[in-house]
């Protein structure tokens, strides 16, 4: 018999993520729960948890401040991190000079990529009708199939 994992008792470790995930998905794998309904409900819970964590961000940072900048609890480490650090490189003269030189090439590169995409979509090379110049050839493309869940309002 498969043992039911109790959320209150499970230690939040990376190893236990797989155990809990397998337990949660068991109903779908056994054919007792619709995979689509499960995906929708999981998406809802993920977004609710994300929103919940964002809404208490200041509370977390305040409590973390009472521990220094790092706290260890339930086998996990919580620490203050600086996120989204941005540098204004344009204030550096050498960077600005290099950027000025590279921008026209990046524009040409993006334009060529668009021509290549078009050639690949139509499954033929693109040729300038007036000059006969080869503009772009089709290339191999790859993709991975997945799904997207969009929750209703």
Task: List descriptors.
mainly alpha; 153 residues; 4 strands; two-stranded antiparallel sheet; 4 helices
SS-based class: mainly alpha
Succession of helices and strands: HHHEEHEE
- Indicate the overall shape: flat
Q: Characterize the quaternary organization of these chains.
A: single chain
Give the averaged pLDDT, no decimals: 92
How much of the sequence is in beta strands?
Answer: 5-15%
End-to-end CA span: 41 Å
Number of strands: 4
Uncertain residue ranges: none
What Rg is obtained from the alpha carbons, in whole angstroms? 26 Å
What topology, given as strand order, has the largest sheet? 1-2
Helix content: 40-55%
Number of helices: 4
Structural account:
There is one protein chain. The chain is mostly helical and 153 residues long. Helix content is 50%, strand content 8%. It has four helices and four strands, in the order αααββαββ. The protein has helices spanning 14-29, 35-55, 57-65, 93-122; strands at 70-73, 76-79, 126-127, 134-136. The strands form two sheets. The chain has a two-stranded antiparallel ribbon. A two-stranded antiparallel ribbon has the order 3-4. A hairpin with a 6-residue loop joins strand 3 (126-127) and strand 4. The longest helix is centred in the C-terminal third of the chain and has 30 residues, at 93-122. The model has no long low-confidence stretch (mean pLDDT 92).
């Amino acid at each position: 018999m498969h043992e039911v994992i109790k959320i209150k008792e499970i230690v939040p470790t990376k190893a236990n993520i797989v155990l809990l995930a397998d337990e949660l998905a068991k109903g779908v794998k056994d054919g007792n729960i619709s995979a689509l309904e499960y995906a929708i409900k999981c998406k809802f819970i993920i977004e609710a948890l994300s929103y919940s964590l964002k809404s208490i961000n200041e509370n977390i940072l305040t409590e973390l401040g009472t521990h220094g900048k790092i706290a260890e609890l339930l086998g996990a480490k919580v620490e203050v991190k600086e996120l989204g650090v941005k540098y204004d490189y344009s204030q550096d003269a050498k960077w600005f000079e290099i950027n000025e030189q590279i921008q026209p090439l990046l524009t040409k590169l993006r334009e060529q990529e668009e021509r290549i995409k078009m050639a690949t979509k139509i499954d033929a090379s693109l040729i300038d009708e007036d000059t006969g110049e080869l503009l772009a050839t089709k290339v191999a493309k790859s993709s991975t199939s997945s799904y997207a869940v969009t929750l209703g309002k």
